[in-house]
Amino acid sequence: MAPALLNYFGLGRSATRNEETTPVRALPASWYTSQEMYELERRAIFSRKWLLITHKLRLKEQGDFLRYDIARFDFVLTCDRSGNINAFHNICRHRAYPVVEANKGTAKIFACRYHGWSYGLNGKLAKAPGYQDLDGFDKSQNGLLPIHVHVDTNGFIWVNLDAKEEPEIAWEDDFDTVDKQERFSEFNFDDYEFDHNWEMDGGYNWKILADNFNECYHCKTTHPDVPSLANLESYDVNTKAGHIQHDAGTTSEQRAAGLRIASTYYFPNASMTVTPHFFFVQKFVPSGPTSSSMRYEVFRNKNSSEEDFQLINQMYKRIMSEDKVLCDLAQKNLNAGVFINGEMHPRMEKGPLYFQKVVRDTVTEHHKREKAAKQEIWPARQNLPNNALVSQEDVEFCTGLACSSNNDALVW
């Protein structure tokens, strides 16, 4: 591999250093601005990794559905007639029109308004007008494209877009026992109910949001509310597999005021923070290399007063709004083409350094697989049936054109 590419992927570095006392260079700015890197992340991360989405409290009744989009992947969660939670790509199997156009609601069936194909809440094809007269049309092979679902011990819903029958990465590989943290025993998630959602769009890369969230080095200079929630002298993070557990060092005074918090970041792009009076799911949702949304789903404790709920709810809204300003302005300088990277503190910025390492390891491993295969690998892509020979030839023809025209750029 060429030295320039080694440096681009962060691999051309000195191997010896004291990890406790030596600053560490961050990922380069190009990783936060490059369209090619963004597309690689869509393939290597968002197509393969388990994504924390929401809580089952939002899908209480049969037919309830929620629509989400992450990194241009549009999908639907629904509760079927058996009470099971299912997920599907929001793509009709006929001509790719979205079968759901609302962001939430209740339905007995999903009907595509383009040609009238309809699907049950379990994703099975119910009706394809006119196709009953065709020989060889198999309804069982034309349901909605399924997405893997995992509901953890506390009721949080995760999805994995890998199109294989079993995802290459098991939920336990990255998150085994993360839902059984001892500190969660202080909270009964059944005591909460969904209250509202809100979001902020911005001109920033999703990773700059994650870097910011996973350290409190900036808290003293930016967030006047944080000392009410955390002990800044002892604030720390613990890293393991696909998650970063934040230890706020809650004081006895904070605990007495109902401000104890348990916050966990779940790679790649979500976190959950729970307090006695509310919890929220936060997602950093990319829509391009330099555009993302900060999206929040807020749940309140049914037994909490309006005053107690709003105290913590408004506090976090202020904190997240302050973070948006930081990320907006930092990204502008990354975009300008002057700054490459800086040195990060191995202890005070342990969280973002770990996050960046997981990103680096994930995308470079996937890039090696693509280089060996001499083509892009999209784990979420539909698997064609064995008898779709002409379609497979058409796909390979177009892939061959892409490989030959971009041979130098892709370094096959």
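the 2nd protein, sequnce then structure:
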Amino acid sequence: MRRAQGGRRRRRLPLLLVAALLAVPGCAGAGALGADGGALTIAIVANPQMNDAIALSDRFEREHGVELNFVSLPENQARAKITASTATQGGEFDLVMISNYETPQWAANGWLTDLGPYLEANPDYDADDFIPSIRDALSYEDSMYAVPFYGESSFLAYREDLFEQAGLTMPENPTWEQIAEFAAVLDDDEAGVAGICLRGKPGWGESLAPFTTVVNTFGGQWFDQDWNARLTSPEFREAAEFYVNLVREHGQVGASNAGFTECGTRYTQGEAAMWYDATVMAGTNEDPASSKVVGKSGYAPAPVMDTEASGWLYTWSLAIPASTEDKDLAWEFLSWMTDKDYVRLVGEELGWNRVPPGCRRSTYDIPEYREAASAYAQPTLDGISHANQDETMTEPVPYEGIQFVGIPEFQDLGTRVSQQLSAAIAGQQSVDEALRQSQEYAETVGESYRETR
């Protein structure tokens, strides 16, 4: 893997960033902040799989006599709220939902509980069942500090029926040039069908996730090995122009405000012919309770240009902040929500297409799940297995991460750059203007790393 070299090190979240995050407003789901005695407060992201966990959590409450209070927030708000609370050891949350971006950094800062002793004391939980790349991404110094709820890479969903009607054939390993050509043919304003749906909503975990994979496969970098910002390089500019032009010309209406949720709604309601995003989308696409396109989709690998692969690696996971008072009780719920038995509970109670994917290898041995996920199970596993820097990047970089830059400053830097990208998608400025401003942001970050090497 093309990992960090030279001056790579963990850095604490800048104090100014923590202060800014503390000002972000939040909204509670079930219950209020704070835990008392036999109660747990869990901060989660308001995604479909997490909503399912809330719906099923009464089983845990009855079995353990515990009150569960969920604070469910949209992704951008959740990131800010959870970061601020955990960084300041505020104690609002007994468990937090974070990703492989935060886990190793926060573990190095001492903000999280080492789960190694719990895993060793509970062999039936079977941590070895986790997909290795997912497990490694949630580890620091060979110990896990979070456990995955679901894992993902990225791929392309496409309407097989619309392709057939248009006389098109999806290649086994499509390029972005081919996808742009398909989008132009399939774009149908009269029928209300966009050629493709791509995220444009600001947020380092929103539009920048798919966008950065496009940058990677076009040969771009956020920083070179000497921490020089590269956002105005020819490769980065070509990727940005391609992404912006594609979504402006053949993407969904209101693209500059569309994220994962919005694209999911459009695709499942038959309003997009293709959708490039997280592999976890497939469960929603194939859910009869919410989708109008069940059984009509094919799933192709993330499109490429100059690399062998271009999918990302990501996992929403559960961690116990170091400030949590009753860590044993927190572990009880954490292990319940990420255990093999929970997978079967979701499948039997809610449907096998709603099972959290890309996490445990044993999930893919369940006959009912294999049948329900036949269209996307293997593409998901293939995407995760190829999600490494050697296959998804053309040149080494000094940071870890594929769809993100694994440094604390990226929460602020990525959000700023995403705002510039969104403005370009909305037609408020040119791509060159967006990149010039983004380069200035990145140069400030890169300079701080060069100074401390």
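The two ends are 22 Å apart (CA to CA). Residues 154-312+386-451 form a domain with the D-Maltodextrin-Binding Protein; domain 2 fold (CATH 3.40.190.10).
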